[in-house]
């Protein structure tokens, strides 16, 4: 006799997200970070006699820091970034379980982690 999976088991089936969805989610998040940085530049720095020298030295690093901080806060508070929510993606570990705190920190700062994958909701 063939045994059918229970409803509980069917609800826990996840499929790996395709690359297009992952790219679109990344572009949404990147556009959000760029808009936030431009807003800060326009409202705070440009009206005040231009850029300070320390800002010019750190400018290449700032978008990456903002992105990591944005991902960290979003993953801790909402279990996903805005791009992930729009594209209906979730991050799960290799056991298809929600991420632990250490995995969230790793996923926020390092975009390619071996034990963390994107899945469709």
From TrEMBL:
Residues 17-104 form the RDD domain. Keywords: Membrane, Transmembrane, Transmembrane helix. It comes from the Bacteria. It is found in: Membrane. It is a multi-pass membrane protein. This is RDD domain-containing protein. It comes from Solitalea longa. Its main location: membrane. The chain crosses the membrane at residues 23-43, 55-78. GO terms for cellular component: membrane. It holds the Pfam family RDD.
